[in-house]
Design goal:
By secondary structure, the chain is α+β, with helices and mostly antiparallel strands. The protein is 18% helix and 40% strand. An eight-stranded mixed barrel has the order 1-2-3-4-6-7-8-17.
Length: 289
């Protein structure tokens, strides 16, 4: 039986069994997409990343990222986890690597057990009616706080809904309302301007795993939303943090920056630590042509 080496790591935490667990699989370049998807379904984590040889000049490696149900062009915790894990396995010291993925070539600065990811091109949409998001989150208009919701992202877009501090822990996703309004990827958060911290929950990555304990792509997009909403300066570089996962018993810390000019976000970074948890081999699933 053919097997592939893998590691399980916890991302965006400095303690084992917290943060967001990730499967990092090596040596899968000969496998078809259907086989990669089957492996991700077997791990049944929010994401599995396959570290593959690069196909573009300037890339250190190629990352293909899968939820248990589908492939993503980009995601934050797989990118951070893959960079640290692949570098450790290859014996690379601290320094910059370039990840090739569906969002393009993304630079990642790798340190000892930690990485800083620069997201893709920022995108932001117009203000949205909050009612569909409130309904999807099982909240009411009394829970609404701050500027209007928007779609924003840095390689993967999310809807962002700012609520009062006590509302975050009360979110109970109403799947019927979410389906009715076409709400899929969304972040519900309370923003503390004094701390420059968002207390967030993120939903919708996979029907099997509807809530994520740490979402780097959503943390990047939040910076774009903060600039567009006037909650951080529209000039220069601002730092902020995202605390996520407490409601799942997996507290996580995502340390971020956003750079802006003329009131428009130009780029964002997200950083976090990576803790090794397990390693082993997994069987290669049969190819079904």
């Amino acid at each position: 039986m053919s097997v592939l080496p893998y590691e399980i790591v916890d991302v965006f935490t400095d303690r084992p069994f917290t943060g967001n667990p990730l499967a990092v699989v090596f040596g899968a370049e000969a496998l078809a997409t259907e086989q990669l998807q089957a492996l991700a379904g077997e791990f049944n984590l929010s994401e599995t990343v396959f570290v593959l040889p690069p196909t573009q000049p300037g890339a250190t490696y190629r990352a293909r990222i899968f939820t248990p149900d589908r492939e993503l062009p980009f995601a934050g915790h797989p990118s951070v986890g893959a960079a640290v894990t692949a570098g450790r396995r290859a014996g690379r010291g601290p320094g910059e690597v370039v990840q090739e993925c569906g969002a393009g070539l993304l630079p990642i600065e790798v340190f000892e057990g930690r990485a800083v990811l620069t997201g893709g091109e920022p995108t932001v949409g117009p203000e949205l009616d909050p009612e569909p998001l409130l309904a999807a989150a099982g909240l009411s208009t009394a829970d609404l706080a701050g500027p209007a919701p928007r779609v924003a992202g840095c390689g993967l877009e999310f809807r962002y809904l700012a609520v009062r501090p006590g509302a975050v822990e009360r979110v109970a996703v109403d799947r019927t309302a979410a389906d009715r309004y076409g709400v899929d990827h969304f972040s519900v958060f309370a923003w503390s301007g004094e701390e420059a911290v968002a207390y967030a929950r993120v939903f919708g990555h996979s029907p099997r795993l509807p809530e994520d304990p740490a979402t780097g792509s959503a943390a990047l997009g939040l910076g774009v939303w903060l600039v567009a909403s006037g909650l951080v300066p529209g000039e220069g570089r601002s730092s902020y943090a995202v605390r996520q996962g407490a409601e799942l018993g997996r507290p996580s810390l995502l340390e971020c920056t956003v750079t802006a000019a003329g009131g428009v976000a130009l780029g964002a970074t997200v950083a976090g630590q990576v803790v090794p948890i397990a390693r082993g081999e997994i069987a290669v699933p049969p190819f079904v042509g």
